[in-house]
Amino acid sequence: MKAVAKMQKAKGLEMTEAEVPQIGQNDVLVEVKACSLCGTDVHIYNWDHPWPDRIKPPRTLGHEVCGIVVEKGSNVTAAEVGDFISAESHIADNTCYQCRIGNSNICMNMKLLGVDINGSFAEYVSVPQQNIWKNPKSMPYEIATLQESMGNSVYTVEESNVNGKNVVIFGAGPTGLFATGISRVLGASQIMVVVGTEFHARIAKQMGADIIINRHEQDVVKEIKSATDGIGADVVLEMSGAGDAIDQSLKSLRQGGQLTLLGLPLRPISIDWSKDIVLKDINIKGINGRKLWQTWVTTSRLLHSKRIDITPIITHKLPLEKYEEAIAVAAAGQSGKVVMFPK
Amino acid sequence: MKAVAKMQKAKGLEMTEAEVPQIGQNDVLVEVKACSLCGTDVHIYNWDHPWPDRIKPPRTLGHEVCGIVVEKGSNVTAAEVGDFISAESHIADNTCYQCRIGNSNICMNMKLLGVDINGSFAEYVSVPQQNIWKNPKSMPYEIATLQESMGNSVYTVEESNVNGKNVVIFGAGPTGLFATGISRVLGASQIMVVVGTEFHARIAKQMGADIIINRHEQDVVKEIKSATDGIGADVVLEMSGAGDAIDQSLKSLRQGGQLTLLGLPLRPISIDWSKDIVLKDINIKGINGRKLWQTWVTTSRLLHSKRIDITPIITHKLPLEKYEEAIAVAAAGQSGKVVMFPK
Amino acid sequence: MKAVAKMQKAKGLEMTEAEVPQIGQNDVLVEVKACSLCGTDVHIYNWDHPWPDRIKPPRTLGHEVCGIVVEKGSNVTAAEVGDFISAESHIADNTCYQCRIGNSNICMNMKLLGVDINGSFAEYVSVPQQNIWKNPKSMPYEIATLQESMGNSVYTVEESNVNGKNVVIFGAGPTGLFATGISRVLGASQIMVVVGTEFHARIAKQMGADIIINRHEQDVVKEIKSATDGIGADVVLEMSGAGDAIDQSLKSLRQGGQLTLLGLPLRPISIDWSKDIVLKDINIKGINGRKLWQTWVTTSRLLHSKRIDITPIITHKLPLEKYEEAIAVAAAGQSGKVVMFPK
Amino acid sequence: MKAVAKMQKAKGLEMTEAEVPQIGQNDVLVEVKACSLCGTDVHIYNWDHPWPDRIKPPRTLGHEVCGIVVEKGSNVTAAEVGDFISAESHIADNTCYQCRIGNSNICMNMKLLGVDINGSFAEYVSVPQQNIWKNPKSMPYEIATLQESMGNSVYTVEESNVNGKNVVIFGAGPTGLFATGISRVLGASQIMVVVGTEFHARIAKQMGADIIINRHEQDVVKEIKSATDGIGADVVLEMSGAGDAIDQSLKSLRQGGQLTLLGLPLRPISIDWSKDIVLKDINIKGINGRKLWQTWVTTSRLLHSKRIDITPIITHKLPLEKYEEAIAVAAAGQSGKVVMFPK
Q1: Active site residue D90
Q2: Contact partners of A by the rule of 3+ C-beta pairs under 8 A?
Q3: Which among A58, B99, C255, D145 could disulfide-bond with D66, CB atoms 3.0 to 4.6 Å apart, if both were Cys?
Q4: CATH code of the domain containing A115
């Protein structure tokens, strides 16, 4: 079968001819219908830190996926052959302290699909039954593959109680765009999105932004204060990882507000904790992955009920063979989500 | 000035010519622009239990109102003459145990506008400054007067975490209709409304119901189970007070679900607490009034941002003189909200 | 091996000579060091409804247990031979909707140890690895076996936010006594326990009750009001299942308070829902089982740190052979927990 | 009357002979029985930033106080002459956005007793009735005056859900020592306190610390990891404001843990937000003041019920005349709380 894999301990990926995976007793074999690109895949392509320490080539990449179950292991009860599924990429051990207290998204012995085992940039992928999510038959492939990615944003927004709130979203990459749409669906009464380009501004508006703030052209904090009677935002979702975004997030927030963080700054950041955090009486929540499986329930239902339409975020659809083009457009930052199809 | 008042300890109301209220140091005088009818007003009209024990005629009725401040007491800082305001009708003492722990909606020494002091079915009403809510100038009078009433439903829905949930609403009177629209705005993924008439069904659909269940024609519990893969609803909002609604609510709910109650059954109800509550591992929340003032913030913002359009719920607009007609249509149950205008 | 089993579809249990269980790939074989009696066991002994519909003799009873792992299946990674463990008796399927949203305590396909598979009133018991809880070596057997039972009360108290609160506990059977001690440890500032006998009153005092109310001799609601400045209790934990306890619980509670229910009333109960629940603006939570595994973490830690001493609740220690005596003392209601030892 | 006041825009305080305050309609006059020193008072004494920008001499200092009501304004209903009260020092306006959403501890127009109006380092102090807290007659003066200060720590601990948790407290000044005792009372199963001196270690042990870590002599993070099976603490309360404490707090915390901050670092702090906050999936809460009035309820009840004994934290009792000595011992850091008595 075709598979896009890291074959060398170096930058780049290759289209290879690989064996169809052998499944174990607790696994299903999935015929991949669509797979999508994550920022992590770009970093692995570039062989950026910390991936060289973790990935052992040859390794098929890809962890966002949907497809049809074509074979199942002898212990599998969670799905039948013919089922249309997506997969959660975090394979938890279910026995560590974090799993036992409800945090399997931060399992202490986590394995990742497409990183620690072969992934979904291929015609077939083996998925542990505990990681299966069944989709409604009517869900389009290009939507079904995006649920894991959208789930990060659902977890971010659900932790932030946006109903009736003034919400700011820093960053209009895929996670910020998902968060814009989700905040709208969950009842934020005013949504401000901080963007860097007109390309992203346009999609943010389609997803429900009320106010667009261009970080290159406007005084971000001033605009947010101005739109909130000088009080500051009730909720800030930091989805950009930009160097100054956390400082601006804190300064844009009202006292007693909520800052939720998904973006990953590249460097340490210096903050006046006394003034901007402690005396501000605020809440901060870091987001890693997505709550299993509450986040999938919400994600799937919002999509299936058509409460949210995420098609504006899908900017590129490509055959899997054009994985180099997919990586390139994602790396260039001029894309929403890039979806690929093995056939 | 004109005022609609209970003049006798008996059924009925009268249009009277009253003095414009004298305000105290902490009060404002409001020129009433719109006032709206609540089910309580109908009960007081009918002189139903327990109102004869509480109301001392002569008493001007009315507690849902908006208007313009035309005079203010010497201690008033919360509003200026010319401000467009609505009023919260629960006048809390701010010093009792409930007020001190954040429950001023259930103040132990509560006074009610239009019950314990003269109300808003008049050309002018005196309002304590602590009960003022300032409105945006652009909000229509017929909307601004409905915020207190809508607030009951906002409190109900916000206590129920409807995002991404299967939600059932029993009752499509005004509170049920508000709750339908609010559940939609706050992200419920499937909304089922149990109604009694085609009149109410039509408005429920306009407010965002996905499924209408007619309680006279359908097996309510069976329909709900059927629409939820046999699991039952995640959330039930009981807004009807109907005799069998609580039993049906409990049976429609999935294990671990949320039942939130605003409807007031007239008689004691017999329930199998072991099976339907304890072993079901569910949450139940009674709703009295609305959270001061978090509920007003959400209500005002959802309206001002046009996230919700409540105009389908306003079925009747009448001059204050036609208060008898207003009472009659409300009592007949063939109405949403009835709004009256003194001028 | 010795095993106490239901051998006939009729009242009673028998001491039998059974085969040591064959374990599966995902199971461990446990040499039972202590097992304890639950009210459920008494009901099964008496062949009360609904157990005849569920239990298929021969069936070894018992679901509260601790012991040493003496053999493990080929897939087991959660424990080693020699580990000292307790077992959770609810065997969840981990794939149903309830399991996926964090409610594996109410799994839709639940199996119970000692009910659906052979249990722990025996020298050896087979336990699925997912149901293992590892104990500190220093924990006494008679304590370690009680963690599942105590866990019900930990879940009840943790759902009720007792810190700094006036707490009433209805019932001083084992779950009420555990709840008394746990409420004390978690910071309830005043603990009132409603008891029926002097025997239970004495243990309740040992566990930390500030006020004992004898339901046969005192006006329960009046005493509670009197001890709370007429306001009512902040929190009521209903652990008795007594016929009038829910009505008294509701009447004892202050407006806006919390009622948490573990006791199982035998018959339907008639309540004035309008006055005692809706207008009271209260929260009610039904409790089924215990949160997996957050409850075990808290239970184990409170015991291991000696923050709580539950030895006063252990009123009887018997060899397993004396199971008839164990059943008899539990049925007579003159006991706390009864612990049995196979050797 | 005697009053200790800032008389000049410069370092220092003076004992002056002042007029007994004239009270307004909404105020009570309190005969001060005890007042206590806060770190803020030391900063004002030293005329540290930002106090010169805010305080206008002459100004009587002091905001922790208890005493007897000796006179009341004409509108006062919350207390009677003869009542024994303490006072909350934050005077909220009750009408701003923060007050309306339940955050009167961060009122946007806050006035502070002993800063913006004359305070309690005097024989008499005027207190607005909304800031009165009534004490049980049996509470000792030296305890009653400490409730506002202890309340900061109660708010910190209550926001952190310490029940059954491994809790680390950085800093063993008064707020850290209060937090140690409160964490113990609210059910933390293991309490580690990071101290700088043997003096503070001794009091921390008296307040319930299980493990003392000396930050000068031990590797703080390593000790915490070691005491938590390498996992890290569930909860960290940062009460020191020390320069490296926030970095150590984050590194000591387990993934998914809770960091609550009351200490005020003097300078900006550089943190790796990606690794130590976002990917760690943690919660951070800044603490400003204390929740009005839920915190007072808990504080008063824990003291009145003798669940907690805070007398080890009171290291100095002095007549008000010895205010210079009080400032000196507090500034030297070799004290717990310093309580002063005007008579």
Answers
A1: no
A2: B, C, D
A3: D145
A4: 3.90.180.10
